[in-house]
Structures are given as structure tokens and as C-alpha cells.
């Protein structure tokens, strides 16, 4: 699937602890902008969104998660690295087990390695840090 030419179904897990949200850091070279996004990724053909979310957390930060509730679904049309993209996003409330809790994780995905950190939700709400997609604010 070419994520810049088709509608891409994705799933994101919202892990909240002590008013902090677990997010991975990204950078758009065209916009020269640092941004954050909850962890998750693409849903494969014939894969349930919950299975995709568990798989993505295992692949990206090598942990198992507990999926609690489907919070909602949104449509996200955006530009990244100068290319248009279109996603259908499933949002789930999730828990990370105590044994897997860390202040920072190394994230391994298609773009190489980045990090995931816990950031105070107010940093996003007050505009100090950018959180995508915007619709995630309905659920935090």
C-alpha cells in the first residue's frame, strides 16, 4: 500500500499515566516541525484493529499492552514531508503493564529509530508541543 496515494486505516493507543501521554517524536523536514503522535500504525488486510495495535506495540517498543476501550474513529487528511496523506484512525484507551513501564522507549519502525516519552497532556493542550492528529484531543 502506498500511504500517500490511498486511504490508510491505522490504529493508535492512548496510554495515559499521571496526566502524561505516551507519544513518539517525529519531525517533518519540509515544515521544519517537531511533532508527537501516540504509538500505533497501519492495520493490515484481514487484521482486526485491536490485533494491529498489539502487533505495533510489540514491533515498535517490544511490549504487550492491555486494550481497554475503543474511544472513537476519525478521518485524518494531512501533509507530511510535502506529501498529502489520508487516514482512518481508530483510537483505543490502553494500559501498559507495570513490568513494561519505562520513562522512555526506543521506537523501531519503518523510518528507523526514534524515541517514545511520557509528556504532560497540558503541554499539548496549551500549544507548547504539537500532537497529531488533532482529533486525538477529543479523547485525552
Structural class: mainly beta
Q: Based on CA inertia axes, which overall geometry fits?
A: globular
* Major beta-sheet overview: 8 strands, mixed
- Residue share in helices? 10-25%
* Strand fraction: over 45%
Number of helices: 2
Number of domains: 1
Average residue-wise pLDDT: 95
Low-pLDDT windows of residues: none
Radius of gyration: 14 Å
Helix-strand pattern = EEEHEEEEHE
CATH superfamily: Nucleoside Triphosphate Pyrophosphohydrolase
Give the structure's gist in a few sentences.
The protein is mainly beta.
Provide an overview of this structure.
The protein contains 2 helices and 8 strands. Strand 4 and strand 5 form a beta hairpin. It has one domain (7-138): Alpha-Beta Complex (Nucleoside Triphosphate Pyrophosphohydrolase), CATH 3.90.79.10. Strands 1, 2, 3, 4, 5, 6, 7 and 8 form an 8-stranded mixed sheet that branches. The mean pLDDT is 95. 13% of the residues lie in helices and 55% in strands. The protein is mainly beta and 140 residues long. The protein has helices at 49-61, 121-125, and strands at 7-17, 20-28, 33-42, 65-80, 83-96, 104-109, 112-120, 131-132.
Secondary-structure blueprint of this entry?
Layout: E1 7-17, E2 20-28, E3 33-42, H1 49-61, E4 65-80, E5 83-96, E6 104-109, E7 112-120, H2 121-125, E8 131-132
Parallel strand pairs: 1-5, 3-8
Antiparallel strand pairs: 1-2, 1-3, 2-3, 2-7, 4-5, 6-7
Offer a few descriptive terms:
140 residues; mainly beta; Nucleoside Triphosphate Pyrophosphohydrolase; eight-stranded mixed sheet; 55% strand; globular
Amino acid at each position: 500500500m502506498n500511504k500517500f496515494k490511498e486511504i490508510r486505516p491505522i490504529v493508535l493507543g492512548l496510554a495515559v499515566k499521571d496526566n502524561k501521554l505516551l507519544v513518539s517524536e517525529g519531525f517533518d523536514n519540509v515544515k521544519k516541525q517537531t511533532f508527537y503522535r501516540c504509538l500505533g500504525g497501519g492495520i493490515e488486510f484481514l487484521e482486526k484493529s485491536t490485533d494491529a495495535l498489539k502487533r505495533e506495540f510489540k514491533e515498535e517498543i517490544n511490549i504487550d499492552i492491555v486494550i481497554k476501550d475503543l474511544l472513537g474513529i476519525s478521518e485524518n487528511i494531512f501533509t507530511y514531508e510535502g506529501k498529502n496523506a489520508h487516514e482512518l484512525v481508530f483510537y483505543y484507551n490502553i494500559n501498559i503493564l507495570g513490568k513494561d513501564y519505562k520513562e522512555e522507549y526506543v521506537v523501531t519502525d519503518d523510518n528507523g529509530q526514534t524515541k517514545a516519552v511520557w509528556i504532560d497532556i497540558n503541554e499539548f493542550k496549551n500549544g507548547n508541543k504539537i500532537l497529531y492528529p488533532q482529533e486525538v484531543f477529543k479523547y485525552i
